[in-house]
Design goal:
This protein is α/β, with parallel strands linked by helices. Helix content is 41%, strand content 23%. It has a single domain, classed as 3-Layer(aba) Sandwich (Rossmann fold), CATH 3.40.50. Strand 3, helix 3 and strand 4 form a beta-alpha-beta unit.
């Protein structure tokens, strides 16, 4: 999903351990959802980062929609407390054990690209 979003907006996909590159206009942050929580890398990135004045868009894949919504609400709240403006969120089904096989699929990725365009146009 990250690659589809990056392709749509002409960005580069990076892992979260490093600092946000200078000049970033919109930071797209994403993760799978594990037991209603983001992956460790995203959680740690948000915990240690400074997001004052940044515009952020969140995306996730999850075996269940409610888990993704809860995770993104929590991350969005954490980012706002650190000074970020959260532009929006998007989630789609992700493969979980034997469920949701084949996801994210082309339709999911198309929606992710539409989400990316919407976030860019919101600024």
């Amino acid at each position: 999903m990250a690659e589809a979003i990056a392709e749509e907006v002409g960005a580069t996909v990076l892992d979260t351990p490093g600092p946000v590159p200078a000049g970033t206009e919109i930071l797209f942050l994403g993760s799978g959802v594990y037991g209603g929580k983001p992956g460790d890398a995203l959680r740690e990135f948000v915990e240690r980062g400074s997001f004052s004045g940044m515009k952020v868009a969140l995306f996730a894949t999850s075996g269940g929609a409610r888990g993704a919504e809860m995770m993104m609400e929590k991350i969005a709240d954490d980012l706002r407390k650190k000074g970020a403006t959260v532009l929006g969120t998007y989630h789609c089904r992700g493969k979980f054990l034997f469920t949701n096989r084949g996801h994210p699929d082309g339709e999911d990725l198309g929606r992710a690209k539409a989400f990316a365009r919407e976030m860019v146009n919101a600024t």
